[in-house]
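Section 5.1 Outputs to date
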Amino acid sequence: MSTTTTRIGPAIGTARIAGDAALDRLADAGYEDLLDACGPADPLRRLGWLRAWRRTAGRDVEPRTVLVDRDRALVAAAPLEAARRGGLVIVRHLAHADAWFDPAPPARDEEARLELLRAVAAEPGDVLLLDGLPATPEWSRAVADAVPGARLAERPPAWRLTLAEPPRSMRKRRKEAGRSRRRAAERGVSLSTTVARAWEEIAPRLDDLLAFQHRNFPGPEPNQLAAPGPRRELARAGIAALGGEGRARLVEVRDGAGALAAFDLALVDGAGAVAYAGAFDRARDDVDGLGWISMLSLVEVLGEEGVEVVDFGAGPAAYKDLIAVPVPLVRAVAPRSRRGRATLAGHALAAWTRAAVARARARGRA
């Protein structure tokens, strides 16, 4: 472990910790209390999840922590990782590969955010990559002021459902789910929905649920959420860590014979929740709309306990635009070494060349 502490004046100080003790130092500094005070309300930024990620999917990275204090009280913090990729050291959010929701590091105010970004920008490495930052003027100004040479680029939006202001399409989805239940009953198929909040109820079912998800939504890539290997290890360990803190909510839809037809599992953080896992039996032809029956039941359960916002993550999915609205995000990239500058310049040139060729082909000149 290495630790560096710097005082920026009589009031502000920063500390950086690299190595396996980085998460312990983050905990000791009061990171969880800072999340409670400032957000983001995203359970995937909780220490339980980050530790699970480190043990499973993040074995090949170096954890780092940057802390900012004011008058010796923590005001901003960033859990980071240094990953070696293609001969370069990339500094990015810890659990970068799973930061599909809200990885923006917590800060009590703009001054704290600015000092945090300055300290993050000083981290040793070749390229700084901060993905999934809010596309707001405040964050854009802070990145421009604190990170020399940073470029902001749009990235796929995240999808968010605000329960007090649902999209108009939600009403249609509810009607469709009701019609699906009635059609199932007409075919002699009874459906029951159960809710589990206690980890003692959810834990024994978790392996079967993850296998059910992978069986029905295997996907072409090994990085699917419930794919066997490190991904499933992470899902199992992360859900267990947060479930043990009372943050898991499970909705199951079963038929009259007790067979699982659909499920959705959310992770809750105060007024926020992440719709983390879910699937329906795609082989059934006697019931339609199982996914909506399960998903809307989950949303109802979360609303009843005071959840205000449900996040569905970034990237495309056939259902997201039918239940949520896009939240713009940006990616901040900055070179931190000569090799980093050369690599980013090469990528920019390659991107420019591809775009030029595409334009020429569109004009029929190539």
